[in-house]
């Protein structure tokens, strides 16, 4: 089943192969892990609450940034013993690739305040920052700063794949 739209403060319309159903609850917790939908969900007709999804995706990005920032700060202070990048998050049930991505992107955001501000504001996610972090070693510090500055005018317009293409042309 997939949430179709809010139907009140504690109600949610859900679409499933059996049809559309309204769920009532005492509390609603909406957890989103990614913006993309699987093929099966794209085949289900109906409007989706894009404004609400964008707000929630922005909130997810801000929380993700804060986690990456704290993880990087604790690691550099020596108070978070990591056996490998993202080992603590991996131990807490996060997928290893996501934990490694947060460790890598948190370190980059710590060195580039404009990138950190865009991420903390929910304009971008670790998926946008990761192509830059993965290729940072290929650029001199001044070149990396120039790339991040140029990307600063494009945040919110580029998808993570667009950032990857931008980085390929910049290298």
Termini separation (Å)? Answer: 43 Å
Fraction in helix:
40-55%
Please tell me how large the radius of gyration is.
19 Å
Net shape: elongated
Poorly predicted sequence stretches spanning 5 or more consecutive residues: none
Number of strands: 3
User: What integer is the average pLDDT?
Assistant: 76
Strand content: 5-15%
User: The biggest beta sheet, please?
Assistant: 3 strands, antiparallel
Count of discrete alpha- or pi-helical segments spanning 4 or more residues: 8
Strand order of the largest sheet: 1-2-3
Q: Please identify the structural class as seen in this structure.
A: mainly alpha
Helix-strand pattern = EEEHHHHHHHH
Descriptive labels:
three-stranded antiparallel sheet, elongated, single chain, 171 residues, mainly alpha
Can you give a write-up of this model?
It is elongated, with a radius of gyration of 19 Å. By secondary structure, it is mostly helical. Helix 2 packs across helix 4 and helix 4 crosses helix 5. 55% of the residues lie in helices and 11% in strands. The model has no long low-confidence stretch (mean pLDDT 76). The chain has helices at residues 39-42, 50-77, 87-91, 96-111, 113-120, 126-135, 141-152, 160-170; strands spanning 2-8, 11-16, 19-24. The N and C termini lie far apart (43 Å). A hairpin with a 2-residue loop joins strand 2 and strand 3.
């Amino acid at each position: 089943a997939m949430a179709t739209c809010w139907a009140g403060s504690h109600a949610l319309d859900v679409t499933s192969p059996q049809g559309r159903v309204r769920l009532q609850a005492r509390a609603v917790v909406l957890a989103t892990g990614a913006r993309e939908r699987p093929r099966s969900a794209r085949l289900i007709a109906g409007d989706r609450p894009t404004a609400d999804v964008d707000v929630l995706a922005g909130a997810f990005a801000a929380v993700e940034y804060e986690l990456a920032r704290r993880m990087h700060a604790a690691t550099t202070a020596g108070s978070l013993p990591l056996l490998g990048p993202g080992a603590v998050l991996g131990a807490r049930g996060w997928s290893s690739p996501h934990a490694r991505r947060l460790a890598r992107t948190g370190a980059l955001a710590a060195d580039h305040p404009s990138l950190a501000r865009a991420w903390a504001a929910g304009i971008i996610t670790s998926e946008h920052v990761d192509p830059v972090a993965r290729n940072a070693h290929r650029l001199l510090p001044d070149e990396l700063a120039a790339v991040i500055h140029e990307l600063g005018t494009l945040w919110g317009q580029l998808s993570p794949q667009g950032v990857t293409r931008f980085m390929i042309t910049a290298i």
